[in-house]
Amino acid sequence: MIHVLLGICALSCFFFHFTDSFRAADGRVYYGFVTPRGLALFKTGLGVEVPRDEKYVMGFVDLIHAAMSVVVFAAIALSDHRVTNCLFPGRKEEMNEVMETFPLMVGVVCSGLFLVFPNTRYGIGCLAA
């Protein structure tokens, strides 16, 4: 069950980096999923014109952000001794050695990549400009 739970959480970290929002002419905020062809609204048939701007097209930066968020989630999840004891029983000493440096390395590398490739999405929970 821990594998399923960690998999679902990792998939949600990946998925939510491909969400974006926009503010329509009526002032309401609409959310959608970013695709290679543009923004696809979660709820269709609303009669709202979806912007066709280039910023609503999935790009390489989106993939980097999604992959790095999964790596950060894995570092945080594996830093808990209860998770590692469940996933790797009998390997407590080895995991303690690895987990002393792994979260720090992931934090440094992912922070650097997030600085080099800034996020411009206003996903679920963020208000569109």
Essential attributes:
membrane; signal; DMP; 129 residues; transmembrane; 4 helices; 3 strands; transmembrane helix
Describe the structure.
- The chain has one domain.
- The chain is 50% helix and 12% strand.
- It has four helices and three strands.
- The protein has helices at 2-15, 60-78, 81-87, 92-116; strands at 19-23, 29-35, 38-41.
- Strands 1-2-3 form a three-stranded antiparallel beta sheet, with no helix packed on it.
- α1 runs antiparallel to α2 and α2 (60-78) packs antiparallel against α4.
- The longest helix is centred in the C-terminal third of the chain and has 25 residues, at 92-116.
- It is elongated.
- The model has no long low-confidence stretch (mean pLDDT 86).
- It is found in: Membrane.
- Keywords: Membrane, Signal, Transmembrane, Transmembrane helix.
- It is a multi-pass membrane protein.
Gist?
This protein has 129 residues and is α+β, with helices and mostly antiparallel strands.
Q: What is this structure's SSE topology?
A:
Blueprint: H1 2-15, E1 19-23, E2 29-35, E3 38-41, H2 60-78, H3 81-87, H4 92-116
Antiparallel strand pairs: 1-2, 2-3
What topology, given as strand order, has the largest sheet? 1-2-3
**Distance separating the two termini:** 40 Å
Q: How large, in whole angstroms, is the Cα Rg? A: 18 Å
Query: What is the count of distinct domains?
Result: 1
